[in-house]
């Protein structure tokens, strides 16, 4: 039905948007086995090629421009075959994708939270001769007189730096002049906004980075990290970005600096602690450690921008990142909200944040302070000894606690003459001892040394979270009620079968839904 509707549209822009929406129906989805773009996207191309109707040809021409590389190659070949068979197509079909960039712009908020990138295009006057082939567009344009540009339109993409620079929203407007005029007027009257032109090469580099970051973010998360409409425009945006000229580095986010060395981070912390903004902090030792966490977050998670502050960044740090990733002692838990308030007062003047931005950021931290005590769950409140937690988390990575405890469940008490509380699973020698004790019942196996080596391989991967799919697979099996040792043997069997192929190992672990009736024997 959707393919037949293509014949009724009046312009290549409408057709491209319709097919982009169609391709977005499965964008970001995951199949238990296989690639969704191959299974559904290429399957759609095969279906259209067999149909051989005018509607199918129109769809193939659009997919040749909008699809993935494999989809585009298959669609172009199929479209050419149908065209040679004199299958009819709309007149505008020859102009699908035949666009020329008109200008690029960026609207930036004063916080440095996000960039709104606007790229404008118009259709060339000369029809394309080969569907999906960018080279044919250039040849047609250079070998014949071009008519006036038609159907101007703007691609708008929001790049969110609080989400690792991901493209989280996109849309298209045909009201180009109105869009640009409103953006300029809004920025002129708002000190919290900047609107400026952007070189097309920089726009391409920025948007390619942002869309790649989105794809990587979707690797382990659901599509809820982007707007509801992003999937519908994803294929269109991907194709339009390729129409921009390449060749430049992406523009750095607002307030970006050169990478911070460990010494430079320490100097910044010392400068903060000696400033007027920090003079009221009552526990200098805890404040120092909290400042280290704030600076590390800004450097490692926010494009080397420790001095950048905003309501969203501070809330994300306090209510999301810290509770998931950082082990704080009780003094640090008490001090952190107050240190963050002081940091905002210290950092905002150094980036030139307007006064209204400073007030809004301080208000956001104040509002988050009460929720922080609920969001941050100290593992010792669950009955875990703090020294035990420290042995499991020598790097302070709170998100690793559950998988490391699964890998090394025996860390207290005596086993023979071995004091388990004196062993540190982060150290190779102690790790081996702990695993030998864990699997002492299997010591009579003739292949015990090899078997233990595989247990050590799995324990090391779980400790490092490499790949993260391993712990996710283990949790699924544990939730089904399977024994820990059986779960470990399944993970071992897969790791031995796949070998040193990270992508294949991650995919195989993703495919685990349950343990067969007879658990696979240990290697």
Task: Describe what this molecule looks like in 3D.
The structure is a single chain. With 523 residues, the chain is an alpha+beta fold. It has four domains: 1-85, no CATH class; 99-125 and 149-243, no CATH class; 262-377; 397-511, no CATH class. Helix content is 54%, strand content 9%. It contains 21 helices and seven strands. The strands form two sheets. It has a five-stranded antiparallel β-sheet with strand order 4-3-2-1-5, sandwiched between helices. A two-stranded antiparallel ribbon has the order 6-7. Helix 2 (12-23) packs across helix 4 (54-66), helix 4 (54-66) packs antiparallel against helix 5 (69-84) and helix 12 packs parallel to helix 14 (355-375).
Count every beta strand, where a strand is a DSSP E run of 2 or more residues.
7
Whole-number tally of structural domains: 4
Largest sheet: 5 strands, antiparallel
* Content-based structural category: alpha+beta
The percentage of residues in β strands lies in 5-15%
User: How far do the termini sit from each other?
Assistant: 53 Å
Number of distinct helices: 21
Quaternary structure type = single chain
What portion of residues is helical?
40-55%
Shape: flat
Give the strand order, joined by hyphens, for the main sheet. Answer: 4-3-2-1-5
Helix-strand sequence = HHHHHEEHEEHEHHHHHHHHHEEHHHHH
Structural Rg: 28 Å
């Amino acid at each position: 039905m959707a393919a037949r509707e293509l014949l009724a549209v009046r312009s290549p822009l409408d057709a491209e948007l319709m097919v982009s929406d169609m391709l977005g129906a499965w964008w970001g989805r995951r199949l238990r086995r296989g690639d969704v773009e191959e299974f559904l996207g290429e399957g759609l191309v095969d279906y259209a090629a067999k149909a051989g109707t005018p509607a199918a040809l129109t769809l193939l021409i659009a997919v040749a421009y909008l699809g993935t590389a494999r989809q585009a190659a298959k669609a172009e070949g199929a479209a050419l075959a149908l065209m040679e068979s004199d299958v009819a197509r709309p007149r505008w079909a020859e102009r699908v994708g035949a666009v020329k960039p008109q200008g690029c712009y960026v609207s930036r908020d004063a916080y440095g939270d996000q960039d709104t990138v606007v790229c404008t295009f118009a259709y060339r006057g000369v029809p394309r001769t080969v569907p999906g082939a960018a080279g044919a567009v250039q040849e047609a344009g250079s070998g014949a007189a071009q008519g006036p540009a038609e159907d101007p339109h703007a691609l708008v993409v929001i790049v969110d730096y609080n989400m690792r620079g991901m493209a989280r929203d996109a849309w298209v407007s045909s009201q180009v002049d109105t869009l640009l005029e409103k953006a300029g007027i809004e920025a002129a009257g708002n000190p919290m906004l900047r609107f400026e032109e952007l070189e097309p090469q920089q726009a391409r580099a920025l948007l390619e980075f942002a869309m790649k970051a989105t794809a990587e973010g979707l690797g382990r998360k659901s599509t809820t990290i982007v707007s509801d409409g992003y999937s519908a425009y994803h294929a269109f945006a991907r194709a339009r970005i390729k129409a921009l000229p390449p060749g430049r580095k992406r523009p750095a986010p607002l307030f970006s600096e050169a990478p911070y060395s460990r010494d430079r981070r320490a100097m910044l912390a010392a400068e903060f602690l000696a400033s007027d903004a920090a003079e009221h902090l009552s526990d200098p030792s805890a404040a120092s450690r909290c400042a280290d966490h704030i600076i590390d977050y800004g450097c490692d998670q926010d494009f080397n921008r420790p001095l950048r502050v905003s309501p969203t960044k501070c809330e994300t740090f306090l209510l999301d990142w810290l509770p998931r990733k950082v082990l704080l002692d009780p003094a640090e838990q008490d001090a952190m909200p107050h240190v963050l308030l002081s940091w905002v007062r210290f950092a905002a003047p150094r980036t030139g944040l307007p006064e209204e931005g400073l007030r809004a950021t301080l208000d956001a931290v104040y509002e988050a302070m009460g929720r922080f005590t609920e969001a941050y769950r100290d593992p010792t409140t669950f009955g875990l000894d703090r020294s035990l937690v420290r042995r499991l988390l020598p790097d302070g990575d709170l998100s690793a606690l559950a998988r490391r405890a699964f890998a090394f469940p025996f860390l207290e008490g005596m086993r023979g003459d071995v004091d388990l509380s004196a062993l540190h699973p982060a150290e190779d020698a102690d790790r081996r001892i702990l695993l030998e004790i864990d699997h002492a019942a299997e010591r009579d196996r003739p292949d015990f040394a090899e078997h233990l080596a595989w247990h050590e391989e799995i324990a090391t991967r779980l400790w490092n979270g490499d790949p993260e799919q391993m712990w996710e697979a283990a949790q699924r099996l544990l939730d089904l009620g399977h024994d820990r040792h059986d779960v470990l043997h399944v993970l071992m069997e897969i790791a031995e079968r796949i070998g040193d192929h990270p992508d294949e190992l991650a995919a195989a672990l993703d495919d685990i839904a349950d343990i067969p009736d007879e658990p696979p024997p240990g290697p």
